From TrEMBL:
This is histidine kinase. CDD domains: HisKA. Photoreceptor which exists in two forms that are reversibly interconvertible by light: the R form that absorbs maximally in the red region of the spectrum and the FR form that absorbs maximally in the far-red region. Residues 435-656 form the Histidine kinase domain. Keywords: Coiled coil, Kinase, Phosphoprotein, Transferase, Two-component regulatory system. It comes from Nostoc minutum NIES-26.
Length: 669
C-alpha cells in the first residue's frame, strides 16, 4: 500500500492559519528528546505517543527510549519504513511498517497527547535534503549523522493542533493496521480525538497546558540546546586547532617543495614550530639510533634564552633519547624538577639546570621506522608548561614532514649519483656496441673469409694457405682476449674472485710481467723498458697472479701508446709505513688532464673505439682498478698533457711483521 498524501499537507489544509518553519535535524532531535523526556518525567499520565520515523535505521537509534516510554503508557505507536526486520507487531508497543514509497518516508512526526498537556512535531524533509540523501548509498553512515539536513513543518503545544495531527496519523495507522481499531478507539474517546472542530485565524485554538508545571520540558529543551552549543563550540575549537596545525604543516611542506636543501627546511621547521607553540627553545638535529653523540644543527630561541646550537649532545648518556629509540615515539616531561627520569640522571639534571629547561618534549623524526633525527621543545619559564593533546599531535605531524624532507633530500642526492652512474652506463653501452661491432665482427669476418677460402680453393699454394691460417689464428686470439677481459672484469665487479694473498718480492712479479710481453707475437719493435727498484724494498702482500696481471696490463698499455724510439720505466719505492708505490711511466702520447679519471672507466678509448690503431678492448685499466682496490690499494694516472708522456701509479700493502719476529730480530742484532 502506497499513500502519496503528506500528513503535513493534510494538517496545513485542515488548519489554514498554521505557518510552517524551517528546522535543522539537530534542532528536531533536541525537540523530540525533550518531548519524550516530558513523558518519562510524568508519573500518573498515560499519554498517547505517535512517532513516525523515515527509515528503520533512524528508529533503531531511538528504540531504547521507546522501550522506556512503553513503561509509562500502553498507547505508544511507532511507524517506520522497513529495511531489515521491522514489521507489524504488538510487543512492548505498536509497530507499523509502512510502504517505503509512502509519503511518510519523507516526514518526521512526534505527537504526544495527555489529559492535561499536548505537543506535536510534524515535519517534512525539504526537497534539497531529499535529493542530497538519494546521492548517498543507504549503507553510508554519513546519512545518519548529517546534521545539515533541513525540514519544514510545525512544532507547537496547541492542543487543537496536536489533536488534529494525532487524528491524521491514527487514520494512517488504521490503513496499515486495521486490527488496532478497538485500541485506537479507546484513545480517541479518552482524549477527544476526532471531534468536529472549525479551525480559522479568528477562532484559533489556544488550549495550552496551563494546569501543569512545564518547567521540566523547558529545562530539558534548554539542556539539549546548551549541549548542542557546547558541542558546536568544541567543534569550532577543534576546527581552529586543525586549521592552525594545517597552516604550520603547509608552511613546512611549502619549504620542502621550494628547497631540496635539508638544512634550510629544518631551520624553517624549527623557527615555525617554536613560534607556534610558544617554546623557549626548539632544537632539531640529525641522529640515528646507534649514535653516541649529535651536534645541534638548528635552533629557535625566545629572547633571553641561552643558545645551544653548535654544541654536542651526549645521546648515550641521555635516558630520554634511549626511551625514544626503544618506544619509537615521543617522550614528554611535564616538570623536570619532579620527573624521576630527570632527577635520577646526573647528565639530564645538569642539562636541565644549565639550560633552564622546566618542561621538555623529545619527538623522533622517523621514516618507515628508521630514526633520522630529533625535535626537542624546551619551555624555560615558570610554571611548568601544560601539554595539550593537540600540541603533541602537531609536533608529531611536523616531525613526519621533516622525515619526508630528509628522505627527499637523501633521495635527490642519490638520484644525482644515479644520474652520473646512468651517464657512465650510457657511455658503456655506446662503447660496448662499438666494441661488439668492431672488435668481434671484424675478426670474425676475417676468420670466416680465411676458412671459406681454404675450404673452397684446395689448389691454393701452401704459402698462401699458411698466411690464411695465421690470420685466422691471430684474429681468434684477439677475440679470445676480448671475451677473457669481459669475464675477468665481470668476476671482479661481482665479487666472485677468491683472493689468495701471499708474501712476494716485487722484482719477481715485474720479471714475470715482462716475460709475458716477450712471449707475445712481435708486430713491431717495442720501446726500451727500464726498471728501477729501491734497495731493501720490503716484501709485499697480495695475490701473485693478480699483481702480475696489473703489471702486465700497465706495461702493455704503455707499449701501445709509446713509439719504438720512446722509453718505458718501472719504478718502485716505499710509500709510508704500510704501502709500496709502483710507477709505470712512458714517453708516449700522454693524457689530457681532464681525462685522468675517466681512463679507468670501462671501454674507455683515448682515440675512440672505431678509430684507434693500437688495438685493445678498453677494459685493461678498469680491470687494474678492480684488482688494486681488491687488496686495499689505490691506482691513479698523471700526465701533463698530449705528447707529454704519462705515469700510472698503484700501491701494494707491505707485509707486516709480527711483534715476535721484531723481537727476535732485535735479539739477533
Amino acid at each position: 500500500m502506497s499513500i502519496a498524501t503528506s500528513v503535513l499537507s493534510e494538517l496545513l489544509q485542515s488548519i489554514p492559519y498554521l505557518r510552517p518553519q524551517l528546522y535543522f535535524k539537530a534542532s528536531l532531535t533536541a525537540l523530540s528528546h525533550a518531548m519524550e523526556d516530558q513523558v518519562l518525567a510524568a508519573t500518573l499520565e498515560q499519554p498517547l505517543v505517535i512517532a513516525s520515523f523515515q527509515r528503520e535505521r533512524y528508529y533503531r537509534q531511538e528504540a531504547h527510549r521507546y522501550l522506556r516510554l512503553a513503561q509509562r503508557s500502553n498507547q505508544i505507536y511507532v511507524l517506520s519504513a522497513p529495511e531489515t526486520d521491522f514489521t507489524h507487531s504488538s510487543e512492548s508497543y505498536e509497530k507499523i511498517a509502512f510502504d517505503p514509497e509512502d509519503a511518510l518516508s519523507h516526514e518526521w512526526h512526534l505527537v504526544v497527547i495527555a489529559d492535561n498537556y499536548a505537543t506535536c512535531l510534524v515535519c517534512r524533509e525539504s526537497l534539497g535534503s531529499i535529493a542530497k540523501s538519494k546521492q548517498i548509498p543507504e549503507f553510508s553512515p554519513s546519512l545518519d549523522t548529517d546534521t545539515s539536513r533541513r525540514f519544514e513543518g510545525i512544532w507547537t503545544s496547541e492542543r487543537g493542533v496536536s489533536v488534529k495531527a494525532a487524528e491524521l496519523l491514527l487514520n494512517r495507522i488504521l490503513l496499515y493496521r486495521p486490527d488496532l481499531a478497538k485500541k485506537i478507539l479507546q484513545a480517541r474517546q479518552r482524549l477527544g480525538i476526532g471531534e468536529t472542530r472549525i479551525y480559522s485565524s479568528a477562532n484559533q485554538i489556544t488550549e495550552f497546558a496551563c494546569d501543569i508545571d512545564t518547567d521540566p520540558f523547558v529545562q530539558r529543551l534548554v539542556t539539549y540546546l546548551q549541549a548542542s552549543q557546547y558541542k558546536l563550540h568544541k567543534a569550532y575549537r577543534s576546527i581552529t586547532a586543525q586549521a592552525r596545525k594545517e597552516r604550520l604543516v603547509n608552511s613546512i611542506s611549502t619549504a620542502i617543495r621550494r628547497s631540496l636543501d635539508p638544512h634550510e627546511v629544518l631551520q624553517i621547521a624549527a623557527q615555525e614550530l617554536g613560534q607556534h607553540l610558544g617554546a623557549g627553545r626548539c632544537l632539531i638535529y640529525r641522529a640515528q639510533a646507534t649514535d653516541a653523540k649529535a651536534i645541534i644543527e638548528h635552533e629557535f630561541l625566545m629572547p633571553s634564552v641561552l643558545p645551544i646550537c653548535g654544541q654536542t649532545w651526549e645521546l648515550d648518556k641521555n635516558p630520554l633519547f634511549q626511551e625514544v629509540v626503544q618506544k619509537g615515539e615521543g617522550v614528554c616531561v611535564a616538570d623536570t624538577m619532579n620527573d624521576s627520569r630527570v632527577t635520577k640522571s646526573v647528565a639530564l639534571s645538569s642539562i636541565a639546570k644549565k639550560f633552564a629547561i622546566r618542561s621538555w618534549l623529545i619527538e623522533p623524526v622517523l621514516y618507515q621506522g628508521r630514526l633520522l633525527g630529533i625535535v626537542e621543545l624546551h619551555y624555560c619559564k615558570e610554571p611548568p608548561h601544560q601539554w595539550q593533546p593537540g600540541e603533541l599531535d602537531l609536533v608529531e605531524a611536523i616531525a613526519t614532514q621533516m622525515g619526508a624532507a630528509l628522505i627527499q633530500a637523501e633521495a635527490y642526492a642519490n638520484l644525482e649519483d644515479l644520474n652520473q652512474q646512468l651517464e657512465a652506463l650510457d657511455r658503456t653501452r655506446s662503447n660496448l656496441i662499438a666494441i661488439t661491432g668492431h672488435e668481434l665482427r671484424t675478426p670474425l669476418s676475417t676468420i670466416q673469409v680465411c676458412l671459406e677460402s681454404l675450404a673452397s680453393e684446395p689448389d691454393m699454394p701452401l704459402e698462401l694457405q699458411q698466411v690464411m691460417l695465421n690470420t685466422a689464428l691471430s684474429d681468434s686470439e684477439r677475440m679470445r682476449k676480448l671475451v677473457q677481459d669481459f669475464l675477468t672484469l665481470s668476476n671482479l665487479e661481482s665479487g666472485r674472485v677468491e683472493w689468495h694473498p701471499e708474501s712476494l718480492t716485487l722484482q719477481e712479479c715485474i720479471d714475470l710481467a715482462l716475460s709475458r710481453l716477450r712471449t707475445r707475437p712481435i708486430v713491431e719493435q717495442p720501446p726500451q723498458i727500464k726498471t728501477k727498484i729501491s734497495q731493501n724494498l720490503p716484501l709485499v702482500r697480495a695475490d701473485g697472479d693478480w699483481l702480475v696481471e696489473v703489471l702486465a696490463k700497465l706495461i702493455d698499455n704503455a707499449c701501445k701508446f709509446t713509439p719504438p724510439e720512446g722509453e718505458i720505466s718501472i719504478k718502485a719505492n716505499r710509500n709510508g709505513k704500510q704501502m709500496v708505490e709502483v710507477t709505470v711511466a712512458d714517453t708516449g702520447r700522454g693524457i689530457e688532464p681532464n681525462r685522468l679519471e675517466i681512463v679507468f672507466d670501462r671501454f674507455y678509448q683515448e682515440e675512440g673505439a672505431l678509430r684507434r690503431t693500437t688495438g685493445g678492448t678498453g677494459l685493461g685499466l678498469a680491470i687494474c682498478r678492480q684488482i688494486v682496490n681488491g687488496w686495499g690499494g689505490e691506482i691513479w694516472a698523471e700526465s701533463t698533457g698530449k705528447d707529454q708522456g704519462s705515469q700510472f701509479h698503484f700501491t701494494v700493502p707491505i707485509v707486516q711483521s709480527s711483534q715476535e719476529e721484531k723481537r727476535l730480530k732485535v735479539k739477533s742484532k
